[in-house]
Write a structure and sequence with these properties.
Layout: H1 21-25, E1 40-42, E2 49-51, H2 54-65, E3 73-75
Antiparallel strand pairs: 1-2, 1-3
The chain binds zinc ion.
Amino acid sequence: MMSLPSILPSKPAIQDTTSTVDEIKQQLGRATNPEATPIFICALDECYRLLPSQKALMMHRKKDHQTEDDGWMITWNGATGGSGGEKVKEEVE
Ligand SMILES: [Zn+2]
């Protein structure tokens, strides 16, 4: 079986002469945010299943864990206005 030597020979860095400007401009990835990419992870019983919404997570809970417990949820979307969500009211003086 082939394996790499524990010490790899060094060589001077050289300029990239094959990539085109268009290739460099092309996005390989991008930063996202909670609004564009909702993330809900079921942390119940070390499940760690990733789901796209709180609703999907609760459906998964009911089906796969036989519970409607809404704890043990990892998300960056904050309160989602479900039963536990608190509506913000504007106070008029
Ligand atoms: Zn789960």
